[in-house]
Amino acid sequence: MGDTTMQAAAPARGGGSQTETQHGTHIDTIENVDIVFRAQRRLSFSYGAVFFAVTLAIPASSVWWKSWYATPIWGGFTANYLFVSLFYYVFLWTMAWTYSKQADKLDETLMHMADAAVASADTIGEEG
Amino acid sequence: MGSLNTIAIVLVVGLILFTIGLSIFSRRFTRTTADFYLAGRKVGSFSNASAISGDYLSAASFLGVAGAVYASGLDGVWYAAGFAGGFMVVVLFIASALRRFGEYTVADFAFGRFGSHRIRLVTVVMVLITSMFYMAPQMYGAGTTWKILVGRGIFGMDPYTSGVVVVAAIMMFYVAVGGMKGTTLNQIFQFWWLNFAIIMLVFFAFGNGFSYPAELEAASESTLVNTKVVTVEQLTADDGAMLANAKSVMTAEEFAAVQAAVDAGDAEAKVPVALSAVNKLHETRDMLFNEPGHRYNGFDQFSMVLALVLGTAGLPHILNRYYTNPSGAAARRSTFWVLVFIGVFYILAPIVGLAGIGMIRDAVAGGTAPATADYVNGMLVKPDAIMPTIAQILGGEWLMGVVSAGAFAAMFSTIGGLLIASASAVGHDVYEKYVNPNASEKQRVFVGKTSVVIFALIAMGIGLGIPASGLDQAYPALIAMMVTWAFAVGAGAFVPMLLTGIWWKGTTERGAISGMIVGGGGSIFIIVLNILAQLGVIGKTGLFGFLGGLTFPTLFTFPLALATIIIVSKMDGQLPKNVDEIWMRIHGTAHERHERELGLDKVGTLFAKH
């Protein structure tokens, strides 16, 4: 990689192009983006934890929970069969819908916050 | 070839002509490389979701899921659930970040994120390998479906070869002519056609008195029975254990034919048999249709779930589609609609598999079962043939035609996406970046189209090579198996790199490359061992024997690749100089705010001329 890399111990902070990017009048600073990143990470990994917990609980129950895999509850449906063939999709749809909505809301909040921060900095600059 | 197949063939030919017409129509809207590879980045959520669903639902989903349920009960249902669950990983961790990064391909992401040409080329190689793994079952499906549908070859070729050659030629033409816009339009149409086909099948099943809970109860009353074509040598091995099993399951009349083959003494003679299944998960229990354990033991229950759930996020042709969204939020919305669309499909496919058990048995007993399929003990010898077979039983010629066209639609839409992904890997990632960076727009599009032609020819070669290699004899359900291999390679090669690249700033180029090689290479190594074990080249003992016995390598390769990335990155510590800039590109929103202000985040039309 040669000259395109630097030591992790000395993160880039110096040049303006490294710590902020501008598109039109909209600016991202690394501080704001870190806030966005942490909020997105919290949201994505919380949902991810629930998704993997539920998804892996199904094979775990198939191995260790007899009432789950061997007891018919509606005609030939066991709880296992009913969940994998139907309710798992309802679970996925609910997760995807609520996650998308929360992520959109988070995007909105963070976008407004970023624009407000830049506007505030401009005002201070003009006053200064 | 009777009138039944004639109507089916007419419908399939109609589908092909429509597909070609759509590609020619969309040609006038493909001028730039962004048009050719990304449909101008203006595909709306609903259209994109339909196209992604068409891209995703391949022959394995359309023909394989119902067949897997028919043969394996609950363990087969997991194929459907796992295929759908994979999109949660995409929406939660990858979709919007990938779109915000805003490039063309996965290799572009790797280059932009880690800043080296080396990682771009490694990614290109992995993209091509994964795409070819995924292409192989599609081409094999094309040959076998042609065999069932047409039953004869053209231009002196056998039926299988004819199917492979014809499908490769059609794909070569329509993808090269239509590019991503043509492919997208076709995928949208093909997805809704195959969805229509399966809805019609289920509609006809319920109309013929099918009751989900009652049929499931009936199917689960006694031990699951499987059909298989075996040699006399296999039948009589182990003191004739398999022969005794067949005798206990089959009717006296059917078993007499098996016994006659054994008495004839030709060890290589093949004979279809019905055998009672063994429960691999709970060994003391009977293997019932509604219980787990037919295909997978305890280890594989977990490994299979992980392979399917993680593999989706590692399929290059699916990931490329996320760049066609106008924004990160649109990418999430697209994924939600994909989950709804394919979820409906995957809820219906197992119903067809279950319905087939009673309806095919009754049709065989009543002498009304289609003569184009083989049966033993009232069951299909090849479960993958369940869709066209039950269509013929339930709805006659026309429904058979609708379903056959659906099968080809599933293959076309997936092969189209794979050809675009492969072409963009070579045309965009290699030619435009290294061979001729100053190429004109016309030259770039020409190289993209040439790449499509070359990869279609390679796919044709792979399709033709499968029977010659003996793979079709080594694996009874080869289509589903080969798709699983593609998922495993994608899950090992790309998902750890993407997850760490997006969510851990400390990931370095060397770490990512090491992870891709360990994850992708390790998966390929274990798959090759599995193939060699199935072909009898290596034994079942020792380390190679153990690894060769793994049906799904992901439980090993994914965590190993993830650990490799983390350890090597920690040891390496060489972050890109502009890591903050890269971080702002992945997680920042200034670009989207700017586009929104200018109204550029709006969905455009696929028919815009530039």
In short:
By secondary structure, chain A is α+β, with helices and mostly antiparallel strands. Chain A has helices spanning 16-19, 30-64, 66-70, 79-127, and strands at residues 5-7, 20-23, 26-29, 72-74, 77-78.
Order of neighbouring strands in the sheet with most strands of chain A: 2-3
Radius of gyration of chain A: 24 Å
Helix content of chain B: over 70%
Largest interface chains and counts: A-B, 71 and 78 residues
Poorly predicted spans of chain A: 1-17
Reading the helices and strands of chain B in chain order gives HHHHHHHHHEHHEHHHEEHHHHHHHHEHH
Describe this structure in words.
- Chain A is an alpha+beta fold and 128 residues long.
- Chain A has one domain (29-118).
- Chain A is built from four helices and five strands; from the N terminus they run βαββααββα.
- In chain A, α2 runs antiparallel to α4 (79-127).
- Chain B folds into two domains: 3-217 and 290-598, Sodium/glucose cotransporter; 225-276.
- Chain B is globular, with a radius of gyration of 24 Å.
- Chain B is built from 24 helices and five strands.
- The model of chain B has no long low-confidence stretch (mean pLDDT 85).
- Chain B starts with a helix and ends in a 12-residue tail after the last helix.
- In chain B, a hairpin with a 2-residue loop joins β3 and β4 (379-380).
- Classes of the chains: A alpha+beta (128), B mainly alpha (610).
- Chains A and B meet through β1, α1, β2, β3 and α2 of A and α5, α9, α12, α14 and β5 of B.
